[in-house]
Amino acid sequence: GAVVSQHPSWVICKSGTSVKIECRSLDFQATTMFWYRQFPKQSLMLMATSNEGSKATYEQGVEKDKFLINHASLTLSTLTVTSAHPEDSSFYICSATRQGRNEKLFFGSGTQLSVL
Amino acid sequence: AQRVTQPEKLLSVFKGAPVELKCNYSYSGSPELFWYVQYSRQRLQLLLRHISRESIKGFTADLNKGETSFHLKKPFAQEEDSAMYYCALSEQGRRALTFGSGTRLQVQP
């Protein structure tokens, strides 16, 4: 089956630094990837939709200058949390669609970000 | 805006008992509904989608447009069904998902 690899699985950083999270589709081409965040005991909230070769589409309330998304190839999208603050601490999950007649969404294993 | 509601945070049943995980949605168009499952320490994975009308691991879900519901059911719960279950909706023509808050199913021996 299709696999989405997300790295790192957890990261601790100091306030004010930037953190990059990678999302790779290992055995398929993903023209669209999605980034979600999940606070403890809450649901996944869509942050942005990332299309290969174009600018990401951000959901209302998500700061595009803070959460930089790059989708430079059909197998890789990155999310950079710039100038991270403690309130950015969350679980970030990417997902990717594999195009086809039975299009499905595949999820990465998530990245736990803790900002000190 | 679309919304997905899962009223129960936790559902605890005994092995062999019937299970129903509730999901209601609000969306003005024609949605596509899904159930995702997350087993302990594993990633989210698709359990079933309403357009497939299939049964996976004994689970079924019927879309009721009148009641705007997509409840997940299984007649006889197994211990290995213990997991977090998320109901999700995608808008017509869009692949991004709106998730419910999730229900943790605990199946006791």
Can you walk through the features of this model?
Helices cover 0% and strands 54% of the residues of chain A. Chain A is mainly beta and 116 residues long. Chain B is mostly beta strands and 109 residues long. Chain B has strands at 3-5, 10-14, 19-21, 24-26, 32-38, 45-49, 60-61, 72-74, 83-90, 97-99, 103-108. The N and C termini of chain B lie far apart (41 Å). At the A-B interface, strand 4, strand 5, strand 9 and strand 10 of A face strand 10 of B.
What class do helices, strands and sheet pairing of chain B give?
A: mainly beta
**Biggest sheet overview of chain B:** 6 strands, mixed
How confident is the prediction overall: mean pLDDT of chain B?
Answer: 92
Report on the biggest sheet of chain A.
7 strands, mixed
> Which consecutive residue ranges of chain B, at least 5 long each, have pLDDT under 50?
none
Largest interface: A-B, 21 and 15 residues
Tell me the Rg of chain B in angstroms.
Answer: 13 Å
Described by the principal axes of the CA atoms, the overall outline of chain A is globular
- Percent strand of chain B: 35-45%
| Amount of beta strand of chain A | over 45%
Distance from N terminus to C terminus of chain B (CA atoms, Å) equals: 41 Å
Structural class of chain A: mainly beta
Helix content of chain A: under 10%
**What is the terminal separation of chain A in angstroms?**
37 Å
- Unreliable spans of chain A are none
- Please give the number of β-strands of chain A: 11
